[in-house]
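Run: sequence + zinc ion -> complex structure.
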Amino acid sequence: MKAFRGEILSVPDDPAIAGPEAIRHFEDGLIVVEDGLVAYCGPYTDRLAEAEIERLDGLIVPGFVDAHVHYPQIDCIASHGEQLMQWLERHIFPAEKAFADRGHADAVAAFFLDELIRHGTTSALVFATVHAGSVDALFEAALARDMRIVSGKVLMDLGPDGLRDSVASGRADTEALIARWRGRGRLGYAVTPRFAPTSSAEQLADAGALIAAHPDVLLHTHLSENPAEIAFVAERFPEAADYLDVYDRFGLVGPRSVFAHCVHLGDRACKRMAEAGAGIAFCPTSNMFLGSGLFDLAQADRHGVRLGIGTDIGAGTTLSVLHTLGEAYRTCQLRGTSLDPFRALHFATQGGARVIGIGTRVGALLPGQEADFLVLDQGATPLLARRCAGASLHDRLFALQILGDDRAVAATYLRGRRA
Ligand SMILES: [Zn+2]
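>> structure
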């Protein structure tokens, strides 16, 4: 058993729906951890001897959940000058080809996961590459670090030379990976067609069959990111009502589906996503960086679509979920909506965890959940310290989102153990 005393904040439900009761704040709080799980999280009580308790100086929040990120693209961050389709051709596809080499995949996976921990991210839904070995590399590294990671081999039978699978090999590799990794550590599998432009109709249908055959796996892909991409999809699938409908026709839209971006969705698609219980990964730094557009939170809210936050490295510009929340705020401002900092924290923790299918395991430090949390240092920089001094919880949390990044993450704990 372990116990931690300090100021604790978690947001188990969306405050826009549940109201202020969604916010759990204990100025002098206590977390008791047994076998890696939260046994108690609430106001400090003297039920334990002081000697057994570790004092944590800072604001304790649940570990961040990155709902969309590409580990093989970490070395392509800050690649200049293109929008989505040209950026993929020029920067991303060449980098992903290198993952045919397992040694390269191992080295990048290790660096990537260490960086996630350093940024306070304890769970993530991660794109690998078309190579099955890229998933083995990531899962082995995640197992060694005891992280909750969901990933899958990318399906792309219409991809460029050197990054193409076939319907048959895509299916066989996916089945083998699911069988090899099911039930190990804190890992989960996601059937991962890259996006509609890089898969044949046969492969998209196969992805639907894989989802139907395996009730414990997710569907993870991209949707409506960039106008040129959307036009390309509309031309290839003229019979579909819209981009989402392309996926829907192949059985890919349901409560286990996670769609990154969704910057340019019509109301029909939004309504359908809400009905199906599908989730969106909102990736503000990526959408700004590639000039893709501004995600419309008010539209998603009108239809009640579930939301998580994605850094989307390498189009994203930071692995910091904290900094990404600041960019989410700016995106919403440009759309005329104000994103509340408690709501933002919910999206980055329990909300995102629900979207990626791990919401009962992590996200809010509720009893029975895994004890993944981090300690935020409100004095990480002189300016942050000055802004937070004497400020309310609301103002401190917002300042952390606007001024904070990895420097504000003092420590990360995985199942109650400091990482
Ligand atoms: Zn992406």
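>> summary
The first strand starts at residue 2 and ends at 10. The pocket of zinc ion is lined by residues 68, 70, 222, 260, 312 (CB under 6 Å).
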